[in-house]
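Section 5.1 Outputs to date
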Amino acid sequence: MRWTMTFVAAAVSLALAGWAPAAEQTPQRQAWTKMVEEAKATHPQLSVKEAKELIAKEKKLVIVDVREADELAKGKVAGSVHIPRGLLEPRIAGKAPDLSQPILLYCGTGARSALAGEQLKKMGYTNVKNITEGYGGWAKEEKK
């Protein structure tokens, strides 16, 4: 009984997160996955280790958390500013007025921030990077 409840809880969590086995993915989910992969190709993707190295050496770096407000309770990268993904384009100039400003993006898993990075590149930003594993990878690394 306990195992069944755990399994059901895990399945519900995965479903709410939008995950589905490859055979069950909808055309919309497949299109979104393709969009994310294409977005990742538009700007550098950094591991957590590489991101930490960049943060340590780049003094003018703007670290942008594009997660939703309710996700901030999980924690954040020290020194980051919060600009939700849906408000990034109109608000980024307030934090990075120079188009060559080094910007490091992250979200929960690296997908939304990859899409955000693609948009910033389209806006003319030339020094955009993304934490591939997102805050989930960051938090996991912090626990080691």
